[in-house]
Design goal:
This protein is an alpha/beta fold and about 190 residues long. The protein contains 9 helices and 5 strands. Helix 8 links the parallel strand 4 and strand 5.
Length: about 190
């Protein structure tokens, strides 16, 4: 995140005011760069593999391979790699941070013939870089909270277009007063 963006956010938080139009436009403009800087600083160490997914979504364990999983906003693969390890499916994944996609491809489990990892901006790109109606399952983990609400409908349509008829989309995200956000808000700053 740029120093200017961080200063604007800190100023708004200290005043408990909504984002100014200037700050909003700056964050929107620099979103891709900011996420890429995040992955530069944190590499693959920030998020833990989401191993709970294989236990939560019973349809995955009942699916007949080979099935195709779409992970939109995949980051470094913490959502799909535990599933790939468990079920050995094909994967289409995308993130708008080129650095995150590079980390996906550097993972020891990466197999180019089974995992198609692409850079894609879910908001600005007209469509995802994969064939339409191909995904049996989709993951959309903690992505909506990183997208401005006015863009949610268009992004939802792009995801929907990737799903086979009858496909299942799993999503998880923060909500207002989400327990994780409340915990972070109570953390002392250093």
């Amino acid at each position: 995140m740029t120093d200017k963006a961080r200063a604007l956010i800190d100023e708004a938080e200290s005043k408990k005011q909504p984002l100014s139009e200037t700050m909003y436009n700056l964050l929107e403009r620099d979103a891709k760069r900011n996420w890429d800087l995040f992955y530069k600083a944190n590499k693959t160490n920030f998020y833990k593999d989401r191993n709970y997914i294989k236990h939560e979504f019973k349809e995955l364990s009942e699916a007949k391979p080979p099935f195709l999983l779409l992970d939109a906003g995949c980051g470094v693969g913490n959502g799909f790699y535990p599933l790939f390890r468990e079920f050995g499916m094909r994967v289409h994944c995308c993130d708008f941070s080129p650095r995150a996609v590079d980390f996906v491809k550097q993972n020891e489990l990466y197999k180019a013939d089974l995992i198609d990892a692409q850079v894609c901006d879910l908001v600005k790109d007209p469509a995802l870089p994969f064939a339409l109606e191909t995904a049996d399952f989709g993951l959309f983990l903690f992505v909506l909270s990183a997208i401005s609400p006015e863009n949610h409908p268009a992004v939802a349509v792009k995801i929907y277009q990737q799903m086979k008829p009858g496909g299942i989309l799993y999503f998880r995200d923060y909500g207002r007063y989400d327990l994780a956000q409340l915990r972070l808000a109570q953390r002392p700053t250093t």
